[in-house]
């Protein structure tokens, strides 16, 4: 018994055709003889997929549609989705330049499960199942599907998720840009002033409380640091922020950051490295590291 399904698309036709041909050999091995015909219709290109099941197979009725649903759901989430994300960014955030839009796109793909992380992959699999179900339902009543129209009108919830992913990506991009600008400003402050001490050893306890030692490994009790504790009480400055502020005030020629045993967040150390470019080294196992906890 022969069955024909038509798949129409206004763009990315080569992508569709390549994917369909790739699957044909698998379908043949499963007892389906498949034929593909391509025909233009205005701005659309239709791919007519005709499947004929071998006589020995009797479970064939909707088997071709099931395979088409698998192929299209994989295609939408695997490749088409990236085009959709770029479309959303281009249409809604056109005021960003090309490099900025590329960064936003990279953030967005993390939210949609394309970063290869376990949790994101589970989320992507969940979304694929929902998209496949929608395709199943549509093909259950139709032998023709136009992808652009189907995505726009039948996958509204899916498109809303992509829009949300882009919006979150823009927020993250702006925060990251603000952070980089802030780091550059701090770096400028450090570069324009002469070092007030030659070396500072930074010790951080597992609770996040830090201690600064001079080159002789003596606690620094400097006039430069007066008022910092008051700032913490008044402004609720975190230990991480206080440490960075203290180091900028001291502007040391070299910083030895003792990391053995944990303490500050990795992001804090990365910020210190960025601000004090070329002045920071890490120590992971000296006597000070062992004593600091």
Question: Could you explain the architecture of this structure?
Answer:
With 293 residues, this protein is an alpha/beta fold. The chain has two domains: 2-184, no CATH class; 199-291, Nucleotidyltransferase, domain 5, CATH 3.30.420. Helices cover 56% and strands 17% of the residues. It contains ten helices and eight strands. The chain has helices at 13-29, 63-92, 98-111, 118-139, 147-154, 156-192, 228-235, 239-250, 266-275, 287-291, and strands spanning 2-9, 32-41, 44-53, 144-146, 199-204, 210-213, 254-258, 280-283. The chain has a four-stranded mixed beta sheet. The protein has a four-stranded mixed beta sheet with strand order 6-5-7-8, covered by helices on one side. Strand 7, helix 9 (266-275) and strand 8 (280-283) form a beta-alpha-beta unit. The model is unreliable at 56-60 and 232-236 (pLDDT under 50).
Topology:
Layout: E1 2-9, H1 13-29, E2 32-41, E3 44-53, H2 63-92, H3 98-111, H4 118-139, E4 144-146, H5 147-154, H6 156-192, E5 199-204, E6 210-213, H7 228-235, H8 239-250, E7 254-258, H9 266-275, E8 280-283, H10 287-291
Parallel strand pairs: 1-4, 5-7, 7-8
Antiparallel strand pairs: 1-3, 2-3, 5-6
Helix pairs in contact: 1-2, 2-3, 2-4, 2-6, 3-6, 5-6
Question: What is the helix/strand order?
Answer: EHEEHHHEHHEEHHEHEH
Query: Helix content range of the residues, please?
Result: 55-70%
Q: Indicate the overall shape.
A: elongated
Strand order of the largest sheet: 2-3-1-4
Number of helices: 10
Sketch the major β-sheet: 4 strands, mixed
How many discrete domains? 2
Radius of gyration, in angstroms, nearest whole number:
29 Å
Low-confidence spans: 56-60, 232-236
Computed structural class: alpha/beta
Distance between the termini: 76 Å
Mean pLDDT, as a whole number? 84
Protein name: Sporulation protein
Pfam families: YtxC
